[in-house]
Fold this sequence. Notes:
Blueprint: H1 2-45, H2 52-73, H3 79-125, H4 130-140, H5 145-157, H6 162-173, H7 176-191, H8 195-244, H9 250-254, H10 256-280
Helix pairs in contact: 1-2, 2-3, 3-4, 3-8, 4-5, 5-6, 6-7, 7-8, 8-10
Amino acid sequence: MNILALFFTFLSATIIIYLVLPRILEAIKEFNQKRAEKMATKMDEMFVQAKEKKMVFLYVLAPFFLGAIAFLTSPQEYRLLATIAGGVIGFVFPSFYIKSLAVKRKKKFYAQLVDALMMLNSALKGGLSLLQAMEVVADEMPDPISQEFAILIGENKMGVSLETSFDRLYGRMGTPALQQFISAVLLARETGGNLPVIFNRIIATIRENRKIQQNIETMTLQGKIQGFVMSLLPVAFGVFVYTSSPQYFDTMMSSEIGKNLLILAAFLQIIGTFLIIKISKISDF
């Protein structure tokens, strides 16, 4: 009787898995496909060549790969927790990496904006039109600002209005300094303002903002160092005590409550470090 019940239980579980598992796998595949399409489009905007199939493969492989590494390298008692943590990190890492590339590109664009405005200023004073001046920037400046101005010029040649092209540029590289530049150009086109004078004011504003940013970074450096030291101090103290007198950890490591408290302490430590970094970080964007 028990064998018959076990057989029907196994048969029921097999049928359920056979019916449900393909749908779960299909849902996971569709979800990864959408994420990959979104990130591939984002990378195309950053002029990073990435095929959509490779992006799907990365999203599928990364959680399993990092989860397997965590499973193989972690102690047996923490293997399940480490595997889950590795899978979560693998799930988040591709999006985080691509987002960091976008932030890096924006910072580089912002750093080049003053030189581009000075080049535009000189070209306008030399008698060139605005579009011709932007062509000079696209030809003479390095990436990414040359790529973005080349897109502006290409869209304008295909009949896209300058306002629409500027909106798209701001959507990709949105910074307050770029907003000032766009507003100045569009306003000057409507009212006939003196663009070289306006550009000189924007350049002066950007330089002043950079000085303020440098002063803020200098003043927050002490807090960043303190946060770094306070984040490492508990870990260093724990390692020192464990290596010199491991018996102090016997009670903590041998009881379930002690292990849970250690996991909670590590989790809170990570959150505290993240909050310190977040509070100390002041961005231009």
